[in-house]
Specification:
Blueprint lengths: L12 H13 L2 E6 L5 H17 L4 E6 L17 E2 L7 E7 L13 H4 E8 L10 E4 L6 H12 L5 H15 L9 H12 L4 H9 L4 H12 L2 E3 L4 E6 L1 H6 L10 H4 L8 E8 L2 E8 L6 H5 L4 E2 L3 E7 L2 H13 L5
Parallel strand pairs: 1-2, 1-4, 2-3, 4-5, 5-6, 8-9
Antiparallel strand pairs: 7-8, 9-10, 10-12, 11-12
Bound molecules: guanosine-5'-monophosphate (5GP).
């Protein structure tokens, strides 16, 4: 079995210091992440907002995303104040962008050239084009929340329990509770420090993972009964037609984690979950070990990580299934 003993490359502390100086010297901050934010976006935003308010108490700090807070992390301290917007109003000294492999991933809610003086890009995706004035981008780091931890630690302020809970949630949601290959020595060292700051681990895991709606389980049952396996059972193809989604009375939150279920089959190395919405099909992709699913997402203009990526395909559900299978086949030459 392959072990992951690697420590990540040393952080460029001059970038962290630039961010801390920006926090101290600016007056207004807009914090945002990728559209349809996940646990890492929300946890990172809330921890950073708290840190900014402590370092610079007179500043204005707003958190705005193109999409709602997922129910699974809506209990996080401060989550009630996060706004779901189609457009940010007014101007800010600083926009901090979390978890966005490109500026377009924010969903076009803010215009950098007219509404913001300084863009701070904090991310851990592959292929981030460094679109900010300050770019704190470490693709070897498990989660954006780990990067927020580095900023918080460097600030010299003791980490508060609420901040620790938010950062820990970001780390565990992006590492599948330390099960995925992005978990490394640094991740666990940071997690230990967050625990020391008071994270109630068991309570948190119950709130994040054991809080699904009944509909979510019925939807999962439908998806699994209709799963197909391809390429000598190495690929699991999962889908949900819009009609079934509506008949079940499902909510987008009910789709969380569904794609991972395909990987439970022992022969499967890649799982794709296709969600039909109008004339677009949103595709979530996951893989095991060295299988690079990011390549497949990028073929359709998407992105993400080696083992977890996504894209959108403008096609019917059946058409998108054929498209994605054709691209998945390239993983198995010969
Ligand atoms: P999910 O399948 O959970 O929506 O996303 C998995 C990973 O892929 C996340 O890191 C997410 O940011 C990225 N991702 C999902 N959809 C897209 C997309 O359409 N474009 C890009 N660039 N990344 C995506």
């Amino acid at each position: 079995m392959k072990t992951n003993t690697a420590t990540t490359p040393a952080t460029d502390l001059s970038i962290v210091d630039d961010i801390l100086t920006t926090i101290r010297e600016s007056h207004s901050f807009c914090l945002s992440g990728h559209q349809n934010p996940d646990g890492d976006v929300i946890g990172s935003e809330l921890a950073m907002a708290s840190l900014i308010r402590r370092m610079n108490p007179k500043s204005k700090v707003d958190i705005m995303n193109a999409g709602p807070v997922p129910k699974s992390v809506s209990f996080l301290p401060g989550a009630d104040n996060i706004r779901n917007v189609t457009r940010v109003e007014g101007k800010y000294d600083v926009v901090m962008v979390f978890e966005c492999s490109g500026a377009d991933r924010m969903g076009g809610i803010i215009d950098f050239s007219s509404q913001v003086v300084k863009v701070v890009n904090i991310d851990h995706h592959l292929h981030n084009p460094n679109f900010g004035h300050i770019n704190f981008v470490e693709p070897t780091t498990s989660s954006t929340a780990e990067l927020i931890f580095k900023i918080a630690e460097r600030s010299g302020l003791p980490i508060q329990k609420n901040e620790a809970i938010c950062m820990y949630t970001g780390v565990v949601t992006d590492t599948g509770w330390f099960r995925y290959g992005n978990t490394n020595v640094q991740t666990l060292e940071i997690a230990a420090k967050l625990l020391a700051a008071g994270v109630p681990v068991a309570e948190l895991s119950e709130r994040v993972y054991l809080s699904k709606s009944e509909t979510a389980l019925r939807l999962l049952a439908w998806v699994l009964s209709n799963m197909t396996l391809h390429f000598e059972k190495r690929v699991a193809l999962l889908h949900i037609p819009e009609r079934i989604f509506k008949e079940l009375g499902a909510h987008p939150d009910d789709l969380e984690e569904v794609v991972n279920q395909g990987l439970q089959v022992e022969t499967v190395v890649a799982s794709a979950f296709l969600k039909e919405k109008g004339d677009v099909v949103k595709v979530s992709l996951r893989s095991k070990g060295d299988w690079d699913i990011n390549r497949v997402a990028r073929a359709f203009g998407g992105g993400g990580h080696k083992n977890a990526s996504g894209c959108s395909i403008q096609n019917s559900l059946e058409g998108a299934k054929a498209d994605i299978l054709r691209e998945l086949q390239t993983l198995f030459p010969g």
